[in-house]
Amino acid sequence: MRITARSKNRVEFSRNHLSFYMKYALVVFNTLRKPLFHKFLDWVLRRERIKEHKVKDVQIKMFPLRKENGNGLAGKCSSEGKILLYPRRLEFCREKMQELGMENLDFYIKSRARATLIHELLHLKYASDEEKVRELTKKYFNIFTKHQRSQNSDAQNITKILFT
Ligand SMILES: [Zn+2]
Fold this sequence. Notes:
Number of helices: 7
Strand content: 5-15%
Order of helices and strands: EHHHEEEHHHH
Bound molecules: zinc ion
Number of strands: 4
Strand order of the largest sheet: 1-2-4-3
Number of domains: 1
Low-confidence stretches: none
Oligomer: single chain
Helix content: 55-70%
Mean pLDDT: 88
């Protein structure tokens, strides 16, 4: 797993944006690297009979990517097993911080990163069956969250934002 930035994008971003996206990428990196989450992913892969070697590369992209319809993209998975994870835009996070507070925003960013990685791993098996992948992502994400015994009392509300 590594953090990557497309350099051609970098010029578009101010210093403020750069430091925000740098911090964001580090939070995601540290969250996804946690041994407990890894153990959980291994369990998911075994349960779904997805061979671990099918995952060739996991890249945390530093900058967000917008789809043609203007919506942000959370992640991408190629048939070769290359998984890309994208951040939320700074403007979105600012808005959410005002709405939910810093602690909840932090929780949201971590949850989104975990859910996205689970989602893209499932695409390795279910390919373009988006409905199935979404259903299972929700299921596995909830299992992980329950076991985590999160102290966050707003966890349920934030999970709602994640899956709508
Ligand atoms: Zn998908």
